[in-house]
């Protein structure tokens, strides 16, 4: 079983610094009103990516911190460890994962996972895998029709959810094609005008036919032609200095002649001193290099041509390219890129009758696909609704509501504008991204009572029991391994409270359960009992959490029963309650 082994909270509300040591079964958290039980749930919310409220942070030390150690197993461990590793974290050698979250009084928040700084969203991703929190706000959430439909879909199982995903994908494709077709028809004039402008630009660019980098190449060629005489003079002078004048009458010494004379002179004395021979060889290498330069200068002069006609052609070509760059981009490469984008956009603007007919056929095909998937999903929801209602009703019988019954109504969705429709029993139904159904949970509180929506048909205590029954049913269908219940037993007492404790203990066989409660009948079923106690001895009120066992636990239950922790009669009653709960758990 995946469990949250340890939770440390510092600087949050009335809690200065406390550590909760948790077990894998049922953990109960109790305490006086105002002692800080809610801060424990708030801390859990922060640790798993919940919204940070700077108003909860203690002024001293000016920051709140929550740290937790998760020990994971099975598929949850595989998925969470893989995600953490991808993000750069590293779980401990024993497979446990350390999480932490800090919040300052200014509202700044930081998160760490497995020793690495991470976005807070990473904590939320892990929280979705390992933790589900149920409290009064969650009851209100489950009263919303969309949430009831989502809950039924989760209950339906993996194959049901695959069918829903397929519908959503097909619906999204149908929506894109429908919107595209409508836009083409609605804005035909504007699209045609835009297409005409793009075609004019493409025609102009096609006539010029610019090539990548052409403007820079032409600029360099024009510069050579414009300065041809100067380049010729420089090359001739260099060639004369290196290899001598072309006319033999010119007796000026050149580099080649001088190098040859120097080499021969050194070679003549090389037999006397070998050093001169080495230097003579190096002069020969220099002479070879000078010969190469002379040959290249000769080729350069032969190719150099001051061609006025070619220069005029270049001027005209560059002018044509400048005309394009003034209109479409900063350079020729940008103009070519503009032309590519224009061609793509023209294909998007295609408003030909052939294309419109093709899009209309595709829209109709996708609408048929959506309709078929929605029909299958509706049937699957009706089947799941029957099973879900039966299981929740059975749980209510064990929660002191033996005559209550839950119905799950799968209702037709109203027809929306321009969307696929489905005909069910002669009624036209609209299909949205979640199918053709609205889902409503209804409660029949007793025989003969009308089936009313939960928000109208259940009292506060009944609603708490219905929510718990739903969670028990959900737990049997999988879900996160750690469940947190924040005073879901509000408004309940007597035998119903005992039944709630029994149901939570049953959940704790397959899940880690954390329960914040004020009912001793629920607390008695705990595998570990933690008490939040307030300390008012100092200048500032603080709270801490401690584990209670044996006599201390009986005293806490006596306080919860009658407000008399030192009463012998109260303690005896508490011990009897603990004995009954122990027998129930063993049974």
UniProtKB/TrEMBL annotation:
Regions annotated as coiled coil: 349-383
Pfam families: SMC_N
Single GO biological process annotation from the record: DNA recombination
An example molecular function term from Gene Ontology annotations: ATP binding
Transcription as UniProt keyword: no
Domain RecF/RecN/SMC N-terminal: 4-536
Keyword ATP-binding in record: yes
Keywords carried by this UniProt record: ATP-binding, Coiled coil, DNA damage, DNA repair, Nucleotide-binding
Cellular component terms (Gene Ontology): bacterial nucleoid
Highest taxon of the lineage: Bacteria
Family (UniProt): Belongs to the RecN family.
Function: May be involved in recombinational repair of damaged DNA.
Protein name: DNA repair protein RecN
Organism of derivation: Plantactinospora soyae
């Amino acid at each position: 079983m995946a469990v949250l082994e340890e939770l440390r909270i510092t600087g949050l509300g009335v809690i200065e610094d406390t550590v909760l040591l948790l077990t894998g079964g049922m953990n109960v958290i109790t305490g006086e009103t105002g002692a800080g039980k809610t801060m424990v749930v708030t801390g859990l919310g922060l640790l798993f990516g919940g919204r940070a409220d700077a108003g909860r942070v203690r002024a001293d030390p000016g920051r709140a911190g929550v740290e937790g150690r998760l020990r994971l197993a099975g598929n949850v461990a595989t998925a969470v460890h893989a995600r953490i590793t991808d993000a750069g974290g590293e779980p401990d050698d024993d497979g446990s994962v350390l999480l932490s979250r800090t919040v300052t009084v200014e509202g700044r928040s930081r998160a760490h996972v497995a020793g690495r700084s991470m976005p807070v969203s990473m904590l939320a991703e892990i929280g979705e895998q390992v933790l589900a929190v149920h409290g009064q706000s969650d009851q209100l959430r489950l009263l919303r029709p969309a949430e009831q439909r989502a809950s039924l879909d989760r209950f339906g199982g993996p194959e049901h959810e695959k069918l829903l995903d397929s519908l959503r994908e097909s619906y999204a494709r149908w929506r894109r094609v429908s919107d595209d077709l409508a836009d083409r028809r609605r804005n035909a004039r504007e699209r045609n005008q835009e297409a005409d402008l793009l075609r004019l630009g493409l025609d102009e660019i096609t006539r010029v036919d610019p090539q990548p980098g052409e403007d820079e190449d032409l600029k360099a060629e024009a510069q050579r032609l414009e300065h041809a005489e100067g380049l010729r003079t420089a090359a001739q002078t260099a060639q004369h200095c290196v290899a001598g004048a072309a006319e033999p009458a010119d007796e000026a010494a050149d580099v080649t002649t001088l190098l040859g004379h120097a080499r021969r002179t050194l070679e003549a004395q090389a037999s006397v001193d070998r050093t001169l021979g080495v230097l003579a060889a190096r002069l020969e290498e220099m002479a070879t290099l000078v010969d190469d330069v002379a040959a290249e200068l000769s080729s350069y002069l032969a190719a150099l041509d001051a061609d006025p006609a070619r220069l005029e052609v270049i001027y005209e070509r560059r002018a044509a390219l400048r005309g394009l760059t003034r209109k479409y981009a900063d350079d020729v490469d940008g103009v070519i890129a503009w032309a590519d984008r224009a061609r793509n956009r023209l294909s998007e603007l295609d408003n030909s009758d052939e294309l419109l007919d093709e899009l209309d056929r595709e829209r109709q095909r996708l609408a048929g696909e959506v309709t078929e998937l929605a029909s299958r999903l509706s049937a699957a929801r009706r089947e799941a609704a029957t099973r879900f209602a039966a299981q929740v009703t059975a749980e209510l019988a064990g929660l002191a509501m033996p005559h209550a019954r839950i119905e799950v109504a799968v209702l037709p969705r109203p027809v929306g504008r321009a969307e696929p429709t489905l005909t069910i029993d002669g009624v036209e139904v609209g299909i949205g991204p979640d199918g053709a159904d609205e889902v409503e949970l209804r409660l029949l509180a007793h025989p003969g009572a009308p089936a009313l929506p939960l928000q109208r048909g259940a009292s506060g205590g009944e609603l708490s029991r219905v929510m718990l029954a739903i969670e028990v049913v959900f737990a049997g269908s999988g879900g996160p391994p750690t469940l947190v219940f924040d005073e879901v037993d509000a408004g309940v007492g007597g035998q119903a409270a005992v039944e709630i404790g029994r149901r939570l203990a049953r959940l704790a066989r397959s899940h880690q359960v954390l329960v914040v409660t004020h009912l001793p009948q629920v607390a008695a079923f705990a595998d570990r009992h933690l008490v939040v106690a307030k300390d008012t001895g100092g200048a500032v009120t603080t709270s801490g959490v401690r584990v209670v066992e044996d006599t201390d636990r009986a005293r806490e239950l006596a306080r919860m029963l009658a407000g008399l922790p030192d009463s012998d009669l109260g303690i005896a009653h508490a011990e009897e309650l603990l004995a009954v709960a122990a027998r129930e758990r063993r049974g």
